[in-house]
Amino acid sequence: MPLLMPVLLAGLLFCIGVYGVLARRNAILVLMSVELMLNAVNINLVAFDVWLRDELLAGQVFTLFVITIAAAEVGLGLAIVLLVFRNRATSSLDEMTELREDAA
């Protein structure tokens, strides 16, 4: 399998993810961009695992770990975003500057 195509695809996905993290102001879109970057890493792990003909399948095992960590990150991140949205009625990252509520 030629290594160029998966690496180019992963690089393109990673660049789109970086642009999404840097340019977006919506917290959910930022989480989606982080997931896109993690999927680009997964593509690279599997592509290099196949290219190196690793008998232990280390790249694919690491990919499973990354998928597990990404699922936990999305669950926790989405819970935080929903809680902030419930309290502040916005999911814009620009308006989430304070770490605590005002004392009453």
Structure in words:
By secondary structure, this protein is mostly helical. The chain has one domain (4-90): Helix Hairpins. It is built from 3 helices and no strands. It has helices spanning 4-23, 27-52, 58-88. The chain is elongated, with a radius of gyration of 18 Å. The mean pLDDT is 90.
Q: Ranges with pLDDT <50 over ≥5 residues?
A: none
What's the total helix number?
Answer: 3
Tell me which CATH architecture applies here: Orthogonal Bundle
Give Rg in angstroms. 18 Å
Structural class: mainly alpha
| N- to C-terminal distance | 64 Å
CATH topology name, in short, is: Helix Hairpins
Q: Please report which band the strand proportion falls in: under 5%, 5-15%, 15-25%, 25-35%, 35-45% or over 45%.
A: under 5%
**How do the helices and strands follow one another from N- to C-terminus?**
HHH
Largest sheet: none
CATH class: Mainly Alpha
Global morphology:
elongated
Helix percent reads: over 70%
Mean pLDDT: 90
How many strands in all?
Answer: 0
Number of individual domains: 1
